[in-house]
């Protein structure tokens, strides 16, 4: 998945999205759910496909892309870009159609602005985290971590690593060497499912995650890793550096770095304390 938020919200309802071919693609089922309030949006979408595209023999306006499902796993999902989302909306009678069109246009325009000025994207992201109650200090680390992660994935991409499968394997190698857990094991430890793990890390967890990924990037470059096995070795070595540093830090501070803390539910007292 792209480092940008994989979810956006329209009138309190979440819409899954993914950055693909230099534009946003949105989950068709999520759009259907908003426009129709149908308890079975997948069935509703199936009927639309049969009527609009099978019977009329029109070309499909959707593509299948991997989005997080309810079980937290990535699954192929029918998605449309902004242009075809408007076509989809036209085929569905709904009182929410016009507000949703305006919202889509706004999302698209903001992305054009962010391409022209990347600092706008960072500013909007920081604002979103602030609205969720994160401290400014945490947000700065999170933003820095995104930049370091992007630098690493760019390095992998330039070396022909498959984004859909091998990125996940390499990320797990770094995580296992750094924290002793795969990403799924780490999420289980924190009692989260489909949420982004890094959004539930504390300051030290973010710092050691950054260390593992940054060192992996430097090792990948210095050894000029040319294929997946070599990149995997670099990932293990980069994670090992961070893992050794984590264990040394734990000895000095007298407690584990790995925390069960998450930001799903937080007592109001603790939230106020973190916001100060």
What about the largest sheet? 5 strands, antiparallel
Q: What's the gyration radius in Å?
A: 21 Å
| Count of domain modules | 2
Strand content: 5-15%
- Unreliable stretches: 265-276
Order of strands, main sheet, comes to 1-2-3-5-4
The dominant shape is globular
Helix content: 55-70%
Span between N and C termini?
A: 33 Å
Number of helices: 11
Look at the helices and sheets and give the structural class: alpha+beta
Q: What would the average pLDDT be, to the nearest integer?
A: 81
Number of strands: 5
The arrangement of helices and strands along the chain is EEEHHEEHHHHHHHHH
Domain Bro-N: 14-110
InterPro entries: BRO_N_domain (IPR003497)
Protein name: Bro-N domain-containing protein
Pfam families: Bro-N
Can you characterise this structure?
- The chain is of the alpha+beta class and 276 residues long.
- The protein folds into two domains: 7-116, no CATH class; 120-275, no CATH class.
- Helix content is 59%, strand content 11%.
- The chain is built from eleven helices and five strands.
- The protein has helices at 28-36, 41-54, 82-90, 97-116, 118-131, 136-158, 166-179, 183-189, 203-222, 228-253, 268-275, and strands at residues 7-10, 13-20, 23-27, 63-68, 74-81.
- The chain has a five-stranded antiparallel sheet.
- Helix 3 runs antiparallel to helix 4 (97-116), helix 5 packs across helix 6 (136-158) and helix 6 runs parallel beside helix 9 (203-222).
- The longest helix has 26 residues, at 228-253.
- It is globular, with a radius of gyration of 21 Å.
- Mean pLDDT is 81; it is low at 265-276.
């Amino acid at each position: 998945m792209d480092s940008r938020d994989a979810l956006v919200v329209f009138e309190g309802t979440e819409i899954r999205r993914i950055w693909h071919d230099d534009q946003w693609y949105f989950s068709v089922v999520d759009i259907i759910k908003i426009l129709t309030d149908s308890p079975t949006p997948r069935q509703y979408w199936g009927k639309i496909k049969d009527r609009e595209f099978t019977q009329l023999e029109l070309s499909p306006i959707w593509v299948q892309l991997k989005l997080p499902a309810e079980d937290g796993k990535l699954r192929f999902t029918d998605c449309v870009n902004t242009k075809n989302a408007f076509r989809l909306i036209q085929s569905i009678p709904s009182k929410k159609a016009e507000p949703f069109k305006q919202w889509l246009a706004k999302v698209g325009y903001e992305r054009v602005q962010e391409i022209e000025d990347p600092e706008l994207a960072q500013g909007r992201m920081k604002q979103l985290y602030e609205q969720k109650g994160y401290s400014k200090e945490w947000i700065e680390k999170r933003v820095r971590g995104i930049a370091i992660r992007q630098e690493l994935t760019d390095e992998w991409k330039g070396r022909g690593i498959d984004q859909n499968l091998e990125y996940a394997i390499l990320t797990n190698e770094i995580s296992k060497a750094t924290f002793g857990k795969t990403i799924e094991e780490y999420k289980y430890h924190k009692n989260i499912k489909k949420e982004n793990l890094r959004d539930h890390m504390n300051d030290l967890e973010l710092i050691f995650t950054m260390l593992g990924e940054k060192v992996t990037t430097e090792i990948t470059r210095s050894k000029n890793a040319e294929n997946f096995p070599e990149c995997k070795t670099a990932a293990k070595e980069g994670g090992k550096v961070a893992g050794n540093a984590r264990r040394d830090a734990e000895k000095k501070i007298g407690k584990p770095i790995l925390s069960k803390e998450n930001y799903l539910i937080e007592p109001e007292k603790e939230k106020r304390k973190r916001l100060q």
